[in-house]
Amino acid sequence: MSANIRVVIAEDDLQIAEIQKRFLERIEGFELAGLAHGLEEARDLVDILKPELLLLDVQFPKGNGLELLRDLRANHCATDVILITAAREIDTLRAALHGGIFDYILKPLVFERLKEALANYALHLEKLTG
């Protein structure tokens, strides 16, 4: 795959968002397309930039990432989603899986786990386009 996979990060915590950004910069084949600290901003970035991948948190001060996931799917958005969340409730994870996420990562985020998820995603895209 020659072009980088474009990623939007949706994370309300500024420090965690910066960690995700720095981790992403260290992983070959991926580039940050946008960074959102709220759900409306995330929705706008996905709608305008049409990234291949969205790294999505669940808990936001104004809403829930699963609501955004449902909206994206209802509008046939082609952007894939990896959930990065501290939510450990089975119902939340089940709803996310039913909503069509590619993968989920439990916080605290560890570089190797993100790298693994993104490598699996890149392989998945390669199979789809190959």
The CATH H-level superfamily is Response regulator
Number of helices: 5
Task: Provide the residue-averaged pLDDT.
Answer: 95
Written as H for each helix and E for each strand, in order along the chain, the element string is: EHEHEEEHEHEH
**How does the overall form come out from the CA principal axes?**
globular
Biggest beta sheet attributes:
5 strands, parallel
For the record, the CATH class is: Alpha Beta
What's the end-to-end separation, in Å? 9 Å
CATH architecture: 3-Layer(aba) Sandwich
Task: Compute the number of structural domains.
Answer: 1
Low-confidence stretches: none
Counting DSSP E segments of at least 2 residues, the number of strands comes to 7
Strand order, largest beta sheet: 2-1-3-6-7
Question: What is the CATH topology?
Answer: Rossmann fold
What class do helices, strands and sheet pairing give? alpha/beta
Radius of gyration: 13 Å
Walkthrough of the structure:
By secondary structure, the chain is an alpha/beta fold. The protein has a single domain (5-129), classed as Response regulator (Rossmann fold, 3-Layer(aba) Sandwich), CATH 3.40.50.2300. 47% of the residues lie in helices and 24% in strands. It is built from five helices and seven strands. It has helices at 14-25, 39-49, 65-74, 90-98, 111-129, and strands at residues 5-10, 30-36, 53-56, 59-60, 63-64, 80-85, 103-106. The strands form two sheets. The chain has a five-stranded parallel sheet with strand order 2-1-3-6-7, sandwiched between helices. The protein is globular.
